[in-house]
Amino acid sequence: MGVSRAEYCVIACAEAWRDNGEVLASPMGPIPSLGARLARLTFSPDLLLTDGEALLVDADGGLEGWLPYRRHLTMVTGGRRHVMMGASQLDRHGNQNISCIGPWEQPARQLLGVRGAPSNTLNNPVSYWIPRHSPRVFVERVDMVCGVGYDRAAAAGPSATRFHRIPRVVSDLGVFDFDTPDRSMRLVSLHPGVTVARVREATGFELTAGADTPFTRPPTATELRLIREILDPDGVRDRHVGAA
């Protein structure tokens, strides 16, 4: 059985936490959660995982310790958490929208609301997971800024940039970062079966991409066994990522 697109996405999400050390991983959604747990079991053993309420857990969900909200907030405001959020819209500089589609005065769609996106992005690293890469998500300009991108953080000054960082964006087509002179989005790797032309067609802004963009690394035999037999034996991952 070959490696599925979903499994490449899990690996790409896991890599977001590589070399993070003892930080709190806050993955939002099944694919990022699988990635964080896989990272903990393999190359990032110091990673802290939470049940989302008040407990620290291991990769299998077993209890490791107590994390009261006041301690959680201390980690959040000191850069010692790495969140992986979703986005209804994401622009070239990493500004994220999860609040509404259309003008603020009369939006066409009401979404989740701003939630914790501003404080997340200004206080600790935030990556993004996009399960359906399309021009509706990757837009030239978000309708409302919830998560703060590089351009707006820079405009706000040192108080906003101290802990602000967007390590990576993972979609069902590839992996992206902002390691460019103007801090705009760059294609880092393609998932196997995807071309640069397809990514450009699915992106609503000019994307930095080289002619020799590599493919996302495949899982090792150990990682694949962990994904399939330990972390997700029921195949939930395939219900959240389309086939290649």
From TrEMBL:
Endpoints of the signal sequence: none
Keyword presence, Kinase: no
UniProtKB keywords: Transferase
GO MF terms, alphabetically ordered: CoA-transferase activity
InterPro entries, alphabetized: CoA_trans_fam_I (IPR004165), NagB/RpiA_transferase-like (IPR037171)
PANTHER family: ACETATE COA-TRANSFERASE YDIF, CHOLESTEROL RING-CLEAVING HYDROLASE IPDB SUBUNIT
Family statement: Belongs to the 3-oxoacid CoA-transferase subunit B family.
Protein name (Swiss-Prot/TrEMBL): CoA-transferase
